[in-house]
Amino acid sequence: MTTVAPQNINQFALAPVRGQLDMQISARGVISGIISANEMSTLVAGNFLKLDSAVTVGNIPQFVAAAAGDKTIFVLTRTVKAATFVALDPCEVAFFGGPVIWEEASDTIAPGQQLQDDGSGFMEPIAASSLRGIALDPAVDGMLFRMILAGNLLVGAQ
User: Is the entire prediction scored with pTM above 0.85?
Assistant: First the structure.
């Protein structure tokens, strides 16, 4: 991909386009998602989480517990209905990072993967220390996905 076609946000179709902010997430600093089916333990509010990189489809963020020593930017929050969570439970997760923006992939991307731009403005897995953000959704080449803007602040975190 070498050129970026001009895109027009269609406010009536409510279809996201590259470069558009996800205002629900950006305004609150909280992501709604589910505990991944791959999570085998019971989680409690305050546990640190990471995105489940084994998830390859869908745009609902799926979280697993972060292991001791994992670098992460996510923490499980208490809801009005629950303080403990098991696999497939809906959850809300607070995060440290910038706004969430829709971007276009130039390679296969897994949730939680650190990203850089490929030189033409499209996002790819990080190969250097030029972190631009963290993938919120899985994506393949040419697909739109959500990314948490991080800049170089969080190199090594997820």
Answer: no
Tens digit of pLDDT for each residue in 13-60?
A: 667 878 888 877 776 788 999 999 999 999 999 999 999 999 999 889
Closest C-alpha to 89, from 66, 67, 62, 110: 62
Tokens (6 digits) for 120: 């033409």
Residue found under tokens 């969430």: 100
Q: Quote the CA–CA distance of 31 and 38 in Å, as a whole number.
A: 19
Mean pLDDT of the chain: 85
Q: Would you kindly state where each structural domain of the chain is located, as residue ranges?
A: 27-95, 100-149
